Task: inverse folding
């Protein structure tokens, strides 16, 4: 294998998923050079089956880097939140917020395509295998194998954007005992741009309008997820209709995929000249669709701080402080929702029903929740 001379780059980003690419493009917009590297071929992102609910705030940030997938996004006009076999419901309506939409739904692959269309030809080292990361006081040296070559890269700053971490030191993990089965289905009566969050004792069931389809996130304990994955299409639709439980009819289920769900929170976002963003910093339950929205804000705020203050260690602490409330608040919010709603306990069901009712009849409370979904950190505290 040939070994190339040591190369230097200001910022090296490991992981060219949507968060890594957003960071690269935000840095480029501010005149800072960075290099992305990913272990997979870039076409691999096109195989990701997820659909993402994005906030209005996320759209505004993506527009600034010309990466808003305008033709692939479906607007959300209303959000209906309720519990199966229990009373109380909340309806959040776009007309209360003077916005073009409450949020948008896009396929992961369309978002990835919109971002990668803006990458320069030399912005990404794809199919790169990381061999070693050697930090010191002035920077980090990374060794990797790519296209039959051994390469060594020296950077001022190494950003980790490689997605959900495994069980490793410095990452606290709380397993929800739930798996998300996802797929697209056709609602026979159309979706009228309404998103549904339906809480069931098995876990939340979300329906997100996407083109003419609903993208569903059907959350279940692992053994029930096994059973649902094994059903034929007809039986799957019957199971979905039963779980949703409002007489809504579906057809034409697409390919099913599943994801195990856990809260993974990294203790520290900065170590020397290494920084963590996106899912590698925090991986949340998909209920209420916070994950990418939060990762996008990580990337944006890091780019702003690097542009204004540079990569020195005290300056990087600004990033830790800037992200504290948003990441802790979003993690706490989703964690509490999952825990409070994923059970069949009578008194809790009553309390949840009263809570949903209170949100519905008391507009300030509803607006409090809605604004956090629309704007994220900008709405805290
Ligand atoms: C079922 C489900 C539904 C979701 N719904 C929503 C939603 O509605 N709204 C929302 O905002 N979020 C949602 N999310 C969360 C969202 O998908 C993630 O927050 C988002 O994809 C994180 O992006 P990322 O770029 O940090 O990581 P990823 O998308 O995981 O990308 C990481 C990249 O790093 C690369 N990589 C990994 N390891 C290495 C390595 N060692 N070397 C080099 N490259 C590496 C990978 O190949 C990949 O390209 C959902 C998640 C799930 C599971």
Result:
């Amino acid at each position: 294998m040939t070994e190339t001379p040591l190369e230097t780059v200001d910022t090296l980003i490991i992981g060219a998923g949507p968060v890594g690419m957003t960071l690269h493009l935000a840095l480029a917009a501010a005149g800072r050079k960075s290099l992305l590297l990913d272990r997979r071929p870039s076409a691999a992102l096109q195989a990701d089956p997820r659909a993402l609910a994005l906030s209005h705030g996320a759209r505004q940030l993506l527009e600034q880097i010309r990466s808003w997938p305008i033709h692939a996004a479906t607007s959300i006009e209303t959000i209906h939140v309720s519990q199966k076999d229990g009373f109380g419901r909340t309806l959040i309506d776009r007309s209360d917020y003077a916005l073009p939409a409450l949020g948008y739904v896009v396929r992961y692959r369309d978002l990835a395509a919109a971002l990668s269309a803006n990458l320069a030809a030399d912005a990404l080292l794809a199919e790169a295998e990381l061999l070693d990361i050697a930090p010191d006081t002035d920077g980090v040296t990374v060794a990797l194998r790519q296209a039959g070559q051994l390469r060594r890269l020296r950077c001022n700053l190494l950003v980790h954007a490689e997605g959900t971490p495994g069980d490793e030191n410095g990452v606290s993990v709380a397993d929800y005992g739930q798996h998300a089965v996802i797929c697209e289905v056709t609602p026979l009566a159309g979706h009228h741009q309404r998103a549904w969050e339906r809480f069931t004792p098995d876990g939340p069931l979300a329906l997100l309008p996407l083109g003419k389809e609903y993208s569903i996130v059907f959350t279940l304990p692992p053994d029930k997820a096994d059973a649902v994955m094994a059903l034929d299409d007809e039986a799957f639709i019957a199971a979905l209709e039963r779980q949703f439980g409002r007489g809504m009819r579906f057809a034409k289920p697409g390919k099913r995929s599943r994801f195990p769900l856990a809260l993974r929170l990294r203790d520290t976002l900065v170590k020397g000249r290494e920084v963590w963003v996106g899912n590698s910093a925090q991986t949340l339950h998909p209920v209420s669709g916070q994950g990418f929205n939060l990762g996008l804000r990580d990337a944006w705020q890091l780019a702003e701080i690097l542009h204004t203050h540079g990569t020195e260690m005290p300056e990087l602490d600004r990033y830790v402080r800037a992200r504290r409330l948003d990441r802790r608040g979003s993690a706490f919010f989703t964690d509490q929702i999952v825990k409070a709603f994923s059970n069949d306990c009578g008194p809790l069901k009553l309390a949840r029903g009263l809570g949903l009712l209170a949100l519905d009849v008391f507009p300030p409370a509803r607006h409090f929740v809605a604004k956090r979904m629309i704007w994220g950190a900008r709405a805290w505290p």
Remarks:
- DSSP finds nine helices and 21 strands in the chain.
